[in-house]
Structure formats: C-alpha cells, structure tokens
Amino acid sequence: MAAYAVPAALAWALLGLLLNFLPLSRAALLLAVVYCVFYGVPEALGRAGPAPPGSRWQVPQRMVSGVSPRRRILVWGAVLGPGFATRNPYAGFGLLLLMVAALGSVTTGVAVAAAIGIAHGTGRALAVVRDSRQIGATEYLRTLLKSMYWRTFDGLALLVIGGVAASAYISTFWHVRL
Amino acid sequence: MTETISATKAPVAAAAIVTGLGLAWAVPSRVAALAVLAVGLAAANGYSKAYSP
Predict the structure, then answer these.
(1) CA of B17, closest CA in chain A: separation in Å?
(2) What is the pTM assigned to this prediction?
(3) Tens of each residue's pLDDT in chain A, 178 residues
C-alpha cells in the first residue's frame, strides 16, 4: 500500500506547489466548470463522449521483468500510484489538476494535493489487490458492467463538483466568502 | 434504447448539478468543500481503475 501511496503523495505535493505559485485560482475554477460540463454530461447520461485526457504510456517490460518482487512493486507503485503515467478511463482524474490549481494557496495546495496523492495511490493499490485474482469469462463481463457503473458515477461526481466550482467562481466576483 | 437510458439519467444528472450548487452555499468554505470532494474523487478514481500491468 505504501509503495503506491508514498510516491503518489510526493508527486502530487510537488504539483500542488507548482500549480499554486501562480495566481491561477479563478481561471482554474472557470476551467473546472467547463471541464465538468464537457466530460460530466456524457458520462452521467451514459452517452459516447470525448475521450478523457490521459496517457497511453505503459511501463516498459524491461523495468519489471527479471527484477525482485520488491523492486517490481516499487516500480508499479511509483508509476501507478500518482496516476499520471497510466491510462485514465474516466475524466475525473484530469479534474483533480484543476481543483488543485483552484485552491489559491501554496500551503493548502500542497496539503490537499498530497492528500489527493495518498487517496489515489491507496485506491489504486486496493484495486490491484481486488483484481489480482484470476479473471474468467464471467468476471470479464462483470468488470465491463462495473466500468459502466464507474463511468456514470464519475460523471455525476463531475456534475456535483462542477456545481460547487461554479458557485465558487461566481463568488470570486462578489467578494463573498470563498 | 440509448435515448431511453439518457431520459432516465437526465433528471439524476440535473439533480447532481443542483446538489453541487446547493452544497456550495450550505458549507462554510467552498475551497474546503472542493478539497474534500477532490480527495474523495481521487480515491474513487484510483479504486475504479482496472488492474492493468
């Protein structure tokens, strides 16, 4: 679990630092609203939509073959834990970057980004444990159904967050509590 | 079939947006709300990915 969560926390904390050095908060909030609608509506409605932003890069075989199990876990953890260098089937991951940039404070940005890294890395490690058993034909269909369920969940989460981000964006003009 | 699915899901999607807007006005800090939602979304995103080595 730590092999996934620790590199993820470090990578995200660094990102939180970089993204909050510049005054990007208001622009990030607006972009988050647009992003949530653009990706959240098709996901929530179960319709075909734009492919979520992400990478198709995969860990080269030479990095994990012929090495000790301990080192293999460390490589997988460092790559999959933070979530940047792997395929992201749902759009929610891309929104996390905008949400970190929207925080508007270096201290808060680093703390929340580190928490995001720990949450993602731990979730990813639990998913690896969950899926590491043998997958049969029935299990494959169940996985397919689950991916549809998760896509809808991700879309609804994007819409909820989009609503919060829209309120936060509007409130920046009224100088009310943010 | 697709149209029917979308028709039943549309009210749920609208409710999600209203929930987000309502949540933003109900909590003392919108930034804190965004932070909590971001951490929750990150955990769900990590767990929802299939095993892919």
Answers:
(1) 5
(2) 0.86
(3) 777 888 888 889 998 999 998 888 899 999 999 999 999 999 999 888 888 887 777 777 777 677 777 777 787 777 778 888 778 889 999 999 999 999 988 999 999 999 999 999 999 888 888 877 656 667 777 777 888 889 999 999 999 999 999 999 988 887 654 4
Do A164 and B37 count as a contact with CB atoms less than 8 A apart? yes
| Separation CA A101–CA A94 (nearest Å) | 12
**Residue A21 backbone dihedrals phi, psi, to 5 degrees:** -70, -35
B24, B42, B53: residue with CB nearest A116: B42
B28 touches A at CB < 8 Å: yes
**Nearest neighbour of A161 by CB, restricted to B22, B31, B37:** B37
Work out the widest C-alpha separation in chain B, in whole angstroms: 43
Compare all CA atoms of chain A with the CA of B2 and give the residue at the minimum distance: A47
Alpha carbons A105 and A98: distance in angstroms, whole number? 14
Q: Does A128 touch chain B (CB under 8 A)?
A: yes
Q: Is this complex scored with an ipTM above 0.90?
A: no
Residue A62 CB partners (closer than 8 Å, separation 6+): none
Q: Please tell me if residue B30 touches chain A, with a CB cutoff of 8 Å.
A: yes
d(CA A14, CA A8): 10
